Amino acid sequence: MSTAAVHSLWTIAADPIPRIDAPKIEYGQLSPVLIVVGAAIVGMLIEAFVPRRARYYAQVFVSVVALCASFAAVVALAAQGYGTTKAHIAAMGAVAVDGPALFLQGTILLAALVGLFTFAERRLDPAAHGNRVDSFAAQASSVPGSDSEKAAVKAGLTTTEVFPLLLFAVAGLLVFPAANDLLALFVALEVLSLPLYLLCALARRRRLMSQEAAVKYFLLGAFASAFTLFGIALLYGYAGSVSYAAIAQVVDGNVPHITPALANTMGNDALLLIGAAMVVMGLLFKVGAVPFHMWTPDVYQGAPTPVTGFMAAATKVAAFGALLRLLYVVLPGMRWDWRPVMWAVAIVTMLVGAIVAITQTDIKRLLAYSSIAHAGFILAGVIATSRDGVSSVLFYLAAYSFVTIGAFAVVTLVRDAGGEATHLSGWAGLGRRSPLVAAVFAVFLLAFAGIPLTSGFTGKFAVFRAAAEGGAVPLVVIGVIASAVAAFFYIRVIVLMFFSEPRPEGPTVAVPSPLTMAAIAVGVVATVVLGVAPQYFLDLANQAGVFVR
Amino acid sequence: MNPVNYLYLAALLFTIGATGVLIRRNAIVLFMCIELMLNACNLALVAFSRMHGNLDGQIVAFFTMVVAAAEVVVGLAIIVSLFRSRHSASVDDASLMKL
């Protein structure tokens, strides 16, 4: 009896195992993200193996090279036409490579590079025991005010882990606006959030406030992402798929073949409406729109100022990218349902941001409420549901991010004995004491206010025009009123800086290293160029304003 | 059993978690309530996966577990650092920044 025959006495052959094809990954098109992730991992290895003295320089070098290389990869992809004619969906449907994605990734990378300069600044704080220190805690695990903290400061420790953390956050931010299925969206959301929670807790001065900000940001952020995830579950239940294209087909009602289960769930509008609302809620939380804005002022105030600047700029860019893609690619079929809700959110966001900002006495909280108001202005462009709407939002985000990082970089310069002097009373008469810094800050404030010849005006004009053409004229009227209210408190700060007497024991302006100078200079140049000669960038945003489906 | 029942259970667990986040005051308990919400999401995803007869939902559930684990690492680190400097994990005590 043959072996096979013996074997068949007590066994039967099962069905052959179906082949699982290896996924096809377009590494070239994903290279911007892959470069940043690779550099972040290299950064962790540097923490493990490079001597302490050399870590700072190694980390800064690796981070700068990675961000520049990643930006070059984005430009190369755009030059090959992936932004326009060759736009397509990579990584088995998970990541879109198209105009809005590439435009926003480029913006995020430039913002991250400028933000990195402010992270690496080591001349503002007075040298502790002969060691230059940056804005981050000597040792995050040491209790504030304890002996271990004093020992860490004396030993000249610095938290160089912030650089890999920044790169991981950037990797999440890059995927977030390009995510083309709900799973990629959720993973990118967490990858960008978790490093930011940690970065918020790492301030060198006012550590209790910094830790408090981190706890608030973490608990509220995790709460919001749980809502997002439940929304994802409901949308998956509605459409039987997590891919944007498949969900859009079900929403529009043109599915090629309907399974019995799908026929059962796609008739259930509650799943679609509640699911979409919960996912949008999570994105509005990241954007900082009212009524999901409560974390913004506390976190912006408590976090180390370089982190605040980076977070305010880059997170907003990425979250608006993700929101646009969700509303324009997945849910255009139910725009009659989401537009009224977004109308209400935009109006409340503009008004609350602008009005509450008037009462603020802390410059970082003031900028936080101003960022809430700006989220409202950008939402007006989102509501337009037109190609102009997309491109105006893209332009606004690019303009806004450089102004924001520049403004927060100026905040790091104005210091007294306790670190940064963020109370507005300390800023009185700054224009007499150091005219250049005050003038630069005035430029940023004018851009926030949307005064002509600054980038803020061009962006606001584009967004409001798109909204008006989309039929949202009342929204534009309210937006202009909110801008006028906002202009009041920006101008008030300018008046305070230039037309009041400096206090004798007021804060001084520290002379920064070329790194912060470069960050501020980039902010000023971007503000002026995008304000005076915006046409090239408007055309660029216009070309990039088409999503791949 | 009808998979719809699992969805009701998931919605119930999610609501319990969300209510807990809103009414409890200890940061660790808040955090556990958030974990409960994430697990309710997992249950809903797996139930929908069973209803539709495809595996997408189960794959998302796996990713959720990984994300939840990463969140525990980051979250506990932040909460412990707050506890060590204040000797309290109550979120009401953390009120240096008020309007």
In short:
Chain B: Its EC number is 7.1.1.-. Chain B: It catalyses: a quinone + NADH + 5 H(+)(in) = a quinol + NAD(+) + 4 H(+)(out). The complex is a heterodimer of chains A (549) and B (99). Helix content of chain A is 69%, strand content 2%.
Descriptive report:
The complex is a heterodimer of chains A (549) and B (99). Chain A has 549 residues and is mostly helical. In chain A, 69% of the residues lie in helices and 2% in strands. Chain A contains 22 helices and five strands. In chain A, strand 3 (414-416) and strand 4 (419-420) form a beta hairpin. With 99 residues, chain B is mostly helical. In chain B, 79% of the residues lie in helices and 0% in strands. The mean pLDDT of chain B is 92. Classes of the chains: A mainly alpha (549), B mainly alpha (99). Chains A and B meet through helix 7, helix 8, helix 10 and helix 12 of A and helix 1, helix 2 and helix 3 of B. Chain A: Its EC number is 7.1.1.-.
Radius of gyration of chain A: 25 Å
User: What is the architecture of chain B at the second tier of CATH?
Assistant: Orthogonal Bundle
Which structural category do the helix and sheet elements of chain A fall into?
mainly alpha
- Identify the quaternary structure here: heterodimer
How far from one another are the termini of chain B? 52 Å
Structural category of chain B: mainly alpha
* Strand line-up in the sheet with most strands of chain A: 4-3-5
Number of helical runs of chain B?
3
> What is the H/E order of chain B?
HHH
For the biggest sheet of chain A, the summary is: 3 strands, antiparallel
- The proportion of residues forming helix of chain B, as a percent range, comes to over 70%
Tell me the greatest interface: A-B, 49 and 48 residues
Low-confidence residue ranges of chain B: none
Quote the beta fraction of chain B: under 5%
Using only CA atoms, what is the Rg of chain B? 17 Å
Domain tally of chain A: 1
What is the β-strand count of chain A?
Answer: 5
Subcellular location (chain A): Cell membrane; Endomembrane system; Membrane
Protein name (chain A): NADH-quinone oxidoreductase subunit N
Transmembrane segments (chain A): 30-50, 57-82, 102-120, 155-176, 182-203, 215-239, 270-295, 307-328, 340-359, 366-387, 393-414, 435-455, 475-499, 511-533
Family (chain A): Belongs to the complex I subunit 2 family.
